[in-house]
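Table S2 (text version). Query chain:
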Amino acid sequence: MAKAKFLTVYFNGACSLCGPEVAVYQRMVETHAIDNVAFQDVSRGALPEGYSRETLLAAIHAHEGEEMLQGVEAFIALWLRLPKFKYLAHIINWPIMRNITGLIYNQLIAPWLYKRYLRQSCDI
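Corresponding structure-token output:
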């Protein structure tokens, strides 16, 4: 079996919901010694070339091989590497499920989380 490509997950660590969720994934990666996943908090620090901070803060992204994945596609790529999430990734990766969850994430969840993050940022 071919080894999965390296995956860099770009997430909003300043989001009070996203940061803790990704921290769970980070602990799983460490616990299971998964060596082909890295995480980068885009709320600060360097950004991948060609992407704005606003774009990356607005939804989870993941760079895999030559491709930048966004939203549900990024989650699927990450979850396929995590033992406790593999089955969920396979279910969501079915075309009809990917379309439904993609629509829910892209149209409802990601915009809500981003607006929530922006409100929190203004309250500081």
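Notes on Table S2: The longest strand covers residues 7-11. The mean pLDDT is 93.
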